Amino acid sequence: MWLIRRTRQVTSYQRVSRASGERDERHGARVASVRPGIVEWVVDRPAKDRDAALALAREQLALKPSEMGTAAQEATALMQSTTWSLWWD
Q: How far apart are CA 68 and CA 6, in angstroms?
């Protein structure tokens, strides 16, 4: 059981690391904080276009389904904030 859980965690970190690089390139999102199961970014250029925000929200939901709502709700939140976070179990 421990090995399965550890493998999933490593995969999650790899996926989040890849997403971090893409967010930095597109939105100037720099990692501000990393804790077990949580990554926070400070964002220079939040998505201003609704389609770009929806694409970003879908990417985020693919990493970890949101308990906050739909992709549309997530996109609105991403457009309005200069701090983004992602958490997983």
A: 26
pLDDT for res 4:
42
DSSP code at position 59: H
Q: Using an 8 Å Cβ cutoff, are 79 and 46 in contact?
A: yes
H or E element at residue 87: strand 83-87
- For residues 41 and 72, is the Cβ–Cβ distance under 8 A? no
Which of 5, 19, 26 lies closest to 62 in space, CA to CA?
Answer: 19
Q: Are strands 38-43 and 29-35 parallel, antiparallel or unpaired?
A: antiparallel
| pTM for the predicted model, two decimal places | 0.73
